[in-house]
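FAQ

Q: What does a record look like?
A: Structure on top, sequence underneath. For example:
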């Protein structure tokens, strides 16, 4: 696992958050559920997620599209939907996951 992605994963675990972002010296953790944290970042701080390493609890298709829109560098997620995996693969965003679901 890439060092920065591992840092994001550890940040997610240690904070008990739902989403963690690592981009250089900047870190961000959210405890909001669903796509809310990604939407907020795209609206309020799009430079934070551009090229960033993201750790997420659950990533579905809608989240995957937001990650593509934000031009993230790499994703780790505990649970990934097959639909989200397809979106990420087609967009060239590298990812790692704990388990995959059909949902």
């Amino acid at each position: 696992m890439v060092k920065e992605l591992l840092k994001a994963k550890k940040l997610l675990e240690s904070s008990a958050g739902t989403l963690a972002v690592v981009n250089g010296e900047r870190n961000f953790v959210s405890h909001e559920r669903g796509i809310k944290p990604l939407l907020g970042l795209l609206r309020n701080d799009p430079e934070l997620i551009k090229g960033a390493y993201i750790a997420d609890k659950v990533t579905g298709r809608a989240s995957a599209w937001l990650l593509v829109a934000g031009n993230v560098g790499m994703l780790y997620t505990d649970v990934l939907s097959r639909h989200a995996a397809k979106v990420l693969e087609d967009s060239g965003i590298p990812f790692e996951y704990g388990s995959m679901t059909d949902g």
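Q: Is there anything notable about this one?
A: The chain has a mean pLDDT of 97.
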